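Section handout, structural biology tutorial.
Before the tutorial, make sure you can parse a SMILES string by hand: atoms, branches in parentheses, ring closures as digits. In the record below the ligand is pyridoxal-5'-phosphate, and the chain has 400 residues. In the tutorial you will relate the predicted structure tokens back to the input. Do not try to memorize them.
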Amino acid sequence: MTTSAYLDHAATTPMSVAALEAFAQEAVRPGNASSLHAAGRAARRVVEESREQFAAALGARPSEVIFTSGGTEADNLAVKGIFWGRRAQDTRRTRVLVSAVEHHAVLDPAFWLAGHAGAEIVLLPVDADGVVDLDALRAELAAHAEETALVSVMLANNEVGTLQPVREVARVARQHGVPVHTDAVQAVGMAEVDFAALGVDALTVTGHKTGGPLGVGALLARRDLPIEAVQHGGGQERGVRSGTLDVPAIRAFAVAVADAVARREDRAAHVAALRDALIAGVRAAAPDAVLRGPDPALRPGLRLPGNAHFTFPDAEGDSLLYLLDSMGVQASTGSACQAGVPQPSHVLLAMGVPERDARGALRFTLGESSTREDVDLLVAALPAVVARAQAAGLVGGGRS
Ligand SMILES: Cc1ncc(COP(=O)(O)O)c(C=O)c1O
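Predicted structure of the complex:
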């Protein structure tokens, strides 16, 4: 009988066997890809072949790939680098438009620019399912295109799984000559990600959510996009991202992404079937739980196939998480703590969820290795867990 269920694949998912083998093969070979001798040239060849494979999987050109240390670095490079690049061309361009439900890796650099570099942040509102308001974007750009440095709207939300109309965002922004960045960290291998077809100017990917290693990622960036370096040094990656290239990680990342994209439809069907069973099971086990984000039965195609997210009235998300963990079920509240204090998710608040309800959030995310037994273990544990968390929440009384 299964005694543990990992339902947190959106946090990180295990490396695929193919990626691990590719990593091991390169990890024992000497050679810095910037060195001129034979070992260095061999390492460079591995990087360039990986760049080609990676770009082809995501509808990009090899010259558009900038390898980074992960999604956070790629998002920082996009937000700060494009802001500085565009403002260098025209000092009026200080507005940064970001959706209100972006990951902190986008929101925090944007707010840092506001605090340190004179940026003005415009948060684009979302509807009750977390879908960005395109009319608000149109109105913003109609009024302020000349003062706008960039727009950043994620492809798929990491908490509630909402897929954003990024193609339309790019179409609207292009009419105004404003570049668009999209964070596709959660989308690769689960939804279609085609850089050219999306029409965006920059796109973030990370290794550890796609069956690749931790500590590697990439920013796809069009060659004509003005982008300033954030990290300076040896001038690697077109001078935009200095630092010795991590050859084994890049090789494994390319193998993982190519594989994740090639088998996307099968994986999506597998996790969607489990996700639907999970939603039905949670609703039966905890009838007052509320599904947040698009309901796949009502708005099909608007949600990542492996994501389910609920709020449980009168319970703290943290209590639910620890109680489930004690029964072998690993999930997430979906949002970060600040200084050890759980905060209601900015994503749920932007969707109009009252703060009291937002406190009882739990995210369940499925991956390739997820099984029906994982879902069954959660559903079996849930009634007792919710009852205990609700009792603790009411006794605590601190939830006004
Ligand atoms: C949407 C999104 N963007 C960015 C990141 C950060 O990526 P990384 O962990 O590779 O730094 C994450 C990770 O949770 C994410 O979910």
